[in-house]
Amino acid sequence: MKKDEQKLKFSAEISKVLQLMIHSLYTNKDIFLRELISNASDACDKLRYEALTRADLTGDNTELKVSLTIDKLARTLTIADNGIGMTRDELINNLGTIAKSGTQEFISKLTGDGKKDLPLIGQFGVGFYSSFMVADKVTVTSLRAGESESWQWESEGTGEFTITPAQKTERGTAITLHLKEGEDQYLDKFRLRHIVQTYSDHISFPIALTDEEGKTETVNTASALWTRSKSDVTDEQYKEFYHHVAHSPDEPWLTLHNKAEGKIEYTNLLFIPSAKPFDLFHPDRKRRVKLYVKRVFITEENIDIVPQYLRFLRGIIDSEDLPLNISRETLQDNPLLAKIKDSVVKRVLSELKKKGETDEASYETFWKNFGPVIKEGLCEATTPREQILEVCRFQSTGINDSLTSLDGYISRMKEGQDQIYYLTGDRIESLRSSPQLEGFVKRGIEVLLLSDHVDDFWVNVVFEYKGKKFKSVTRADIDLENTEEKKEEAKPDANNDEQVKALCERIKQILGDKVKDVRTTNKLTNSAVCLAVEEGAMDFRLERFLIEQKQLSTVSAKILEINPDSSIVKLLVSKLASADSTTDIEDATWLLFDQARILEGEEITDTGAFMRRLQGFVEKSLAA
Asked: Which of 107, 171, 461, 611 could form a disulfide linkage to 145, CB 3.0–4.6 angstroms apart?
């Protein structure tokens, strides 16, 4: 071991990636260069931003660039930049432990089957670690801008790496790949030029290639992709830029490249992924859109340039109006930022609406990935709720194999219907079989089925859409006989029958404070009972959630609704006058009440009594 050399081990996750890289037989290894150039570009971006407030960081060396150097004699390829550089601790944290830029997502997708895993490497280079597909040793030398000590990181990818002091005098990072036998193609300047122009032409810093004779040429366009006209950018260039900013293996589902002119000027190049990002529901809910000012990178974190309900967006926004010397702390309060955000939101929602109308099948795939996130925007008071609702899609009793928009639902509403009915629950399959839907299905009244957790919240703050009010089918004041075409079929004596009223009173007496009331309903057709809540009261699933979060201490008493046309209810009515049937009525009441609670996901407080009553009725039925 050299003097001052320290030997450290890779984290378990990185060791797993390295083993796959080292033993890779995948043919498209070119992506290693894309990944290393992308990292070098990010390092230059970071320095350019920090130099806005600390000019001493760049000194006289203000031209930021990426360099590729070939050494055929030593069989090495060096990828260098004069960007921000890394300290000793940063080398250890960035190269020795799990990377932030998508490596965890990559690992989660590995199957352990080499043949299945290797194509994934071809899609996604896993950043720095892709170096080991072509190199049997990697040396990284780095000097952090503003620091005096440089450091060298070195590894053969066998589970450990070394850190030693270095003699580097210019800021930035140089990565030297000691190529494996058989990888001499990466010492060919024509091959390297082709790779750069294929994968990294969009990089906004010059990429200089120096061959074995010492001749240097710039091999990329070196202009920011988003500054070019859309007609000058190919689909392949958009795709590679997406990989650069998103660190994701998939292809973009939708690309939005626009330039806004007028009172505020900005350019956006935004992408919607075709696959769900691994951290989409992380508690931090971080947004990954980079903010530039006049082509200078400012930040992509802790800035409210896109709302959290659009946090799946990837890409950049480049402003012409924001001051370059603005600090991150004061940037958030700049009114121009809020205007840019509002404009971007309107554009994104408008494009989503168009996509939903022109390509329903593709849009359903998008919605399954990101619908729950978009609906978070409905819970916020300052969002364009109607625009958000226009792009929302829902499961419905009216459509089994696809999703519906609210406009589609309204177009199918019954004559005289002025409410959008919905039912919330944990699983679509359970919702479709809910007794709460029986009367609606019988009458052909469509009901939206809401199974995302966010649905419990937005329905309590969004009350209508285009003049149609939202209403849960669990509300106790619903009277389905008031639909226009059913008035002549109503049974005026059904709900006023004295015997049924007497049964309701008897059931209420038996259940006591376990129920708020007992009423008849025309919502049910096959089932005997269901639970309901009053208008304005908390729905079942939201109440359970708040109890789980210890924001409520007890379950509230519900309304028990009974179906007067049910054969069970009719039998109970016939037994009311018999003194010998008192126990049967009480046991049946508790069984029906517990059944209703089970169907709504509520807990049975006395399971022993429930089993005793159920067993008793089964025995009587078998003995009859």
From this structure: 171
